[in-house]
Amino acid sequence: MTTLSPEILAELEKQAIELPSWAFGNSGTRFRVFGTPGTPRDPYEKIADAAQVHVHTALAPTVALHIPWDLVDSFDDLRRHAEDLGVALGTVNSNTFQDEDYKFGALAHEDDRIRQKAIDHHLACIDVMHATGSRDLKIWLAEGSNYPGQNDMRSRQDRLQDSLQQIYAHLGDTQRLVLEYKFFEPSFYHTDVPDWGTSYAQVAALGERAMVCLDTGHHAPGTNIEFIVMQLLRLGKLGSFDFNSRFYADDDLIVGAADPFQLFRILAEVIRGGGLNNPDVAFMLDQCHNIESKIPGQIRSVLNVQEMTARALLIDREALATAQRANDVLAANAVLMDAFYTDVRPALAAWRSERGLPADPMAAFLSSGYLEKISAERVGGAQAGWGA
Ligand code: AOS
Ligand code: ZN
Ligand code: ZN
């Protein structure tokens, strides 16, 4: 069995992956939202389900919220509820993609009244952050256009920057704005924040507490995502990941399920760039479990990240650098592949047991009776993850 050195285990011990509240709600595609027995009926139950992932893995100490999907009467109360369950509230995600007024945009909209409404929504999210103790305000914008000529793309960028400046000015001293890019959808001809360069240009103009969010499902097929990771870390502007996996578009599938080698390469660059367990880089999942059970889906996700992180930590960096300096192409590739092909699961299972955790978190959760309990208790009124 492969052994993991004390240095590697020390790094893995610090790993923290933030779960999205919406992963526990019913979600789906534009064709159908399939329900699942026991699905949470409110944010409190979402937090309870997310806490189960942390109980069984010790990998998921925070839960990201989404406004308005997670609106409650008292965020102080929700924060205490989370703390009582051993987790904390994390990133606050805004939403300017489900209001009739935002049909033609929000923060980049030509109509100042609508743009102000979108800005005010973000200021309300910052108010939530003060109550939850959250650091990050995550902004993903669905804005853009569907046809050439529909909009003036340049003036949209200028209005977007003005809106972001107003939002940024309201952040608390320790809070951050994280701007997520996406190359298409729901706008199909142009998206106002389509790529890492645009996000970087917009946040660089704001200040040091404005960062880029990299969603692993938000790139054209074949994109070298680990190159973007390297560059953003090199520029000091990688604020967070939205981890998921995709086969064709922004599929929001279980991270590592489609391409574990890509996840390994991304994590290898994170480690190379000093991003692993760097408090400035948040590891968030952004996934929906449309047809698979949600809590097990999240357990699988965090275990996939842990496993690929362990493999990436096994890379013999000295041998790699030597081979690279010598332009020994095959030797350098072999160093990387040796680490990737190493089965670290037995070592991770043994390590979990040493720490009083279940060697097999998935089996432990499935035999805990939690799913049966919530399926019996939560009858009716399940909340859609994507906010109906
Ligand atoms: C949408 O495709 C983006 O990935 C968003 O990050 C995410 O799904 C949204 O933040 C949920 O509100
Ligand atoms: Zn995302
Ligand atoms: Zn997405």
List the topology elements.
Blueprint: H1 6-14, E1 19-20, H2 43-57, E2 62-66, H3 75-84, E3 88-93, H4 112-132, E4 136-140, E5 144-145, H5 153-168, E6 176-180, E7 190-191, H6 196-204, E8 210-215, H7 225-234, E9 238-243, H8 260-272, E10 282-285, H9 294-313, H10 317-325, H11 329-340, H12 345-354, H13 361-366, H14 370-377
Parallel strand pairs: 1-2, 2-3, 3-4, 4-6, 6-8, 8-9, 9-10
Antiparallel strand pairs: 5-7
Residues 66, 93, 95, 140, 180, 182, 215, 242, 250, 286 line the site of D-allose (AOS).
Q: Describe it for me?
A:
- The chain is α/β, with parallel strands linked by helices.
- The protein is 43% helix and 11% strand.
- It has helices at 6-14, 43-57, 75-84, 112-132, 153-168, 196-204, 225-234, 260-272, 294-313, 317-325, 329-340, 345-354, 361-366, 370-377, and strands spanning 19-20, 62-66, 88-93, 136-140, 144-145, 176-180, 190-191, 210-215, 238-243, 282-285.
- The strands form two sheets. Strands 1-2-3-4-6-8-9-10 form an eight-stranded parallel beta sheet.
- Helix 4 (112-132) runs parallel beside helix 5 (153-168) and helix 10 (317-325) runs antiparallel to helix 11 (329-340).
- The mean pLDDT is 96.
- It binds D-allose (AOS) and zinc ion (2 copies).
- One zinc ion binds at residues 140, 180, 215, 242, 286.
- The site of one zinc ion has 5 residues, from loops.
